[in-house]
Amino acid sequence: MARAHATRAPHSSGRPQPHITVVGGGFAGLTAAITAAEAGASVTLYESHHTLGGRARTADEEYRTNEGPHALYNGGPHWTWLKQRGLIGDLAPIPPIEGTRLRLHHRGVLRRTPPLAMLRLLRRAPEQAPIDVDFATWAGAQVGEEGARAAAHYSAVALFHHDPGSLSARFVHTRLRRAAKFPPEAHYPVGGWGSVIDRMAAMAWNLGVRVETLARVDDITEFTDRGPVVVATSLDAARRLLQDDTLRWESGRTALVDVALRTRRGDLFALSDLDATGWVERFTAQDRTLAPAGEQLIQAQIPIGPEESKADGVARAEHLLDLGFRDWRERVTWRRAAVANGRTGALDRPGTTWRDRPAVNRGDGVYLAGDQVAAPGLLSEVSFNSAIEAVTLALTAESGLSGMSGLSGMSDGKGAAGRPGDGKPAPWIDLKSA
Predict the structure, then answer these.
(1) CB of 395 within 8 A of CB of 41?
(2) CATH superfamily of the 19-89+191-242+351-433 domain
(3) Strands 102-106 and 279-282
(4) How many CB atoms lie under 10 A from the CB of residue 318?
(5) Which runs of consecutive H residues, i.e. helices, occur in 20-63?
(6) CATH 3.90.660.50 boundaries in the chain
(7) What is the pLDDT of residue 421?
(8) Quick check: 259 and 332 in contact, CB under 8 A?
(9) pLDDT at residue 400, as a whole number
(10) pLDDT at 420
(11) What pLDDT does residue 409 have?
């Protein structure tokens, strides 16, 4: 297993050590804590749960299910940052045979290849898709209504929304191309996301970050008197904590159905529903540590509309399982179902981009980080980018801390020289993922 590397930036002689408070111990909070500590700040992190990780937790049980994303995309700056610090660890490769077991549900049957119209659409560059037009309208004009609908539904694997066609064309098309890229950008840390969180927590500890779990924060006044505060919670929690009703942005609503089955040769690796929105994946195809020997762990992700119930999502998941996993009902050894409501990242409507989301800099030494704030990227990349930006702005505002060039840790060697209050990302953040 890769070892996390912890190093502190040098301090200036005679300069007082700034203090950063981080509220929230998920991926964004740990990124912010590590970044601040590496730059020489004293850091205290508060987490209301008894363990760290937020939606990146992996159940420490017989079936190692994830509460949040299952894959790490290697197309964003977070990949380099994590890799340089030894935080990714071992990756579970997808065996070549499993790559042939992806099926697409289209026109009521399972197919091996996507519709030609969808392939034609994938050749369009993201910059060709307009921001102020919905994806269904733009893509329909490019390749026809059926191809546009199939592409929109496939993109739901990275959007978790029941109607991707209604979202901004630029927003959806960028994510569609990344989700369909070959070779795939998605990679799977052995043991689930929890293994990455464990390494991040260990690195934070080694850097001297003080971590307080089971520590619910209801008022940040006492913390702002000591120095900058990074609020790295869900947007709903941040709205209540900061008493700021403007902290709102649309997210998805998804039924999650986890099932463990006795192994049977020939089970699919993944099934994408192009007739509706839905994705089923057998995660033990690449990582056998997620379930006991002789069993397979499968998750169905079914975006559901505001008028649909959890039962509706479960019924659609079971229909896809019927299509792709023969006799699965007789092989079930364990199952559970839940609904993730507003917990699947930001969604941009036509006419909006990530720049229109709640700003990172909230003023008065308070900064926001998470997957629904004003930072570019896909899924967890938004949490990462906003966390780095929050710390950059906070420490820049603290009279220019020595060692600021160590903030980004990116391979291009650029410093994190974000300007406080301008709302712009630090220059090393990849805006092409916007």
Answers:
(1) yes
(2) FAD/NAD(P)-binding domain (3.50.50.60)
(3) unpaired
(4) 17
(5) 27-38
(6) 253-341
(7) 37
(8) yes
(9) 52
(10) 34
(11) 36
Return d(Cα 112, Cα 153) in angstroms, integer. 16
Q: Which two tokens stand for residue 75?
A: 């197309």
Measuring CA to CA, which residue among 265, 259, 256 is closest to residue 101? 265
Closest listed residue to residue 293, CA positions, set 302, 284, 301, 306: 284
How far from 101 is each of 70, 233, 280, 409, CA to CA, in Å?
19, 38, 12, 38
The pair of structure tokens assigned to 350 is 């036509």
Report the distance separating Cα 104 and Cα 194, nearest Å.
30
Name which of 156, 393, 429 is nearest 273 in CA terms: 156
Query: In sequence order, which residues have a C-beta less than 8 Å from that of residue 209 and are 6 or more positions away?
Result: 33, 34, 37, 43, 44, 45
DSSP string, 6-53: --PPPPPTTPPPPEEEEE--BHHHHHHHHHHHHTT-EEEEE-SSSSSB
| Residue ranges of the chain assigned to CATH 3.50.50.60 | 19-89+191-242+351-433
Task: Give the ranges where 144-287 is alpha helix by DSSP (H).
Answer: 145-155, 169-179, 193-206, 221-224, 235-242
Low-confidence residues in the chain, pLDDT < 70: 1-15, 68-69, 399-434
125 Cβ contact partners less than 8 Å away, ≥ 6 residues apart: none
Q: Could you tell me the CA-to-CA distances from 161 to 147, 230, 431 in Å, in that order?
A: 18, 28, 23
pLDDT digit string (tens) for 255-282? 999 999 999 988 999 999 999 999 999 9
Architecture per CATH, 253-341: Alpha-Beta Complex (3.90)
If DSSP codes are grouped into helix, strand and coil, which group holds residue 6?
coil
Cα of 23 vs its chain's centroid, Å: 19
Question: In this predicted structure, what is the pLDDT of residue 317?
Answer: 97
- pLDDT tens digits, residue range 146-170? 999 999 999 999 999 999 999 999 9
Which residues, other chains included, contact 181 with Cβ-Cβ below 8 Å and sequence gap of 6+?
A: 75
| Helices 135-143 and 145-155, axial angle in degrees (round to 10) | 130
> Does residue 7 sit in helix, strand or coil?
coil
In which residue are the tokens 């919905």 written? Answer: 134
Residue 72 is inside which H or E element, if any?
strand 72-73
User: Three-class SS of residue 297?
Assistant: strand
Task: Report the alpha-carbon distance of residue 81 to residue 87 in Å, rounded.
Answer: 9
Interatomic CA distance for residues 251 and 160, integer angstroms:
8
